[in-house]
């Protein structure tokens, strides 16, 4: 797939969180999958340290399928991909990471 410069930048983004916003069929799932793959393979980030949040259960399930195809994941993909902010917060609380995320985001 030919990527635009912006898509390539998003895939290679390393420092801090990233947000992908685009319309239907724009390649969001591909971009997010490739970014996760890049973080794991090239930046050596453990999958358990990556959290992907989507707005729909359908999108979350599609990401799980695509990520499972990319690598032999020992992690539970339900702990990597969440489809609501509530679920994301539950995961962050379970991992005792809420304070760190808020500090990194500059939220007090």
Summed up:
The chain has helices at 5-12, 28-41, 57-70, 85-94, 98-105, and strands at 52-53, 81-82.
Question: What does this protein look like?
Answer:
The chain is mainly α and 108 residues long. The protein has a single domain, classed as Rossmann fold. Helices cover 50% and strands 4% of the residues. It is built from five helices and two strands; from the N terminus they run ααβαβαα. The protein has a two-stranded parallel sheet. The termini are far apart.
From the structure above, extract its key features.
108 residues; 50% helix; two-stranded parallel sheet; 4% strand; mainly alpha; Rossmann fold; 5 helices; single chain; 2 strands
| Total of domains | 1
**Proportion in β-strands:** under 5%
- The assigned structural class equals mainly alpha
Which strand order spans the largest sheet, edge to edge or round the barrel?
1-2
Low-confidence stretches: none
CATH topology tier name: Rossmann fold
What is the strand tally? 2
As a percent range, the share of helical residues equals 40-55%
Oligomeric state, counting identical vs distinct chains: single chain
Cα shape: globular
Write the CATH architecture name.
Answer: 3-Layer(aba) Sandwich
Query: How far is it from the N-terminal to the C-terminal residue, by CA?
Result: 41 Å
Average predicted local confidence, pLDDT: 78
Backbone CA Rg: 14 Å
CATH class: Alpha Beta
